[in-house]
């Protein structure tokens, strides 16, 4: 059985959403709902913690692209961080690391979010 869950942590200037488990066609609706509602709540920054993401399918990539486009419309800075090597490899192969803001650590993601608020 596939497992997927999210944790939501409000921070100054935004929200951290942790994705845990397998982001695939079965969990895409749940992930989309959580991420889109965070953007639509008016968060300046959406930081997505990928440290516990064990798998991502094309449906999961589609969710992240959709949320990215929504964040652009809502002027929300979207940043992903702490990708396991397997997930990072998928992003690099697809060129997603060139489209989305991706940092190595939570601290880098928070610094990027802080810097984007000043612009």
Give the termini separation. Answer: 45 Å
Strand portion, in percent?
A: 25-35%
Q: Which term fits the overall shape?
A: globular
- So how many helices? 5
Based on CA atoms alone, the radius of gyration comes out at 13 Å
Average of pLDDT: 93
Major sheet description = 5 strands, mixed
The counted number of beta strands is: 5
Going by helix content, strand content and strand pairing, the class is alpha/beta
Which regions are unreliable across 5 or more consecutive residues at pLDDT < 50? Answer: none
Helix content: 40-55%
Order of helices and strands: EEHEHEHHEH
Strand order of the main beta sheet, please? 1-2-3-4-5
Structure, explained:
The protein is of the alpha/beta class and 119 residues long. It contains 5 helices and 5 strands. The chain has helices spanning 28-40, 58-73, 85-94, 96-99, 106-118; strands at 4-11, 14-23, 45-56, 77-81, 101-103. Strands 1-2-3-4-5 form a 5-stranded mixed β-sheet, sandwiched between helices. Helix 1 packs parallel to helix 2.
């Amino acid at each position: 059985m596939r497992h997927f869950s999210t944790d939501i942590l409000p921070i100054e200037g935004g929200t951290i959403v942790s994705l845990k488990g397998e982001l695939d066609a079965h969990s895409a609706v749940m992930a989309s709902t959580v991420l889109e509602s965070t953007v639509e709540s008016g968060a300046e920054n959406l930081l997505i913690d990928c440290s516990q993401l064990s798998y991502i399918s094309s449906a999961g990539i589609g969710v992240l692209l959709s949320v990215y486009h929504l964040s652009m419309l809502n002027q929300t800075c979207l940043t992903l961080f702490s990708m396991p090597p397997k997930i990072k490899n998928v992003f690099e192969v697809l060129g997603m690391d060139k489209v989305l803001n991706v940092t190595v650590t939570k601290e880098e993601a928070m610094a990027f979010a802080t810097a984007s608020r000043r612009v």
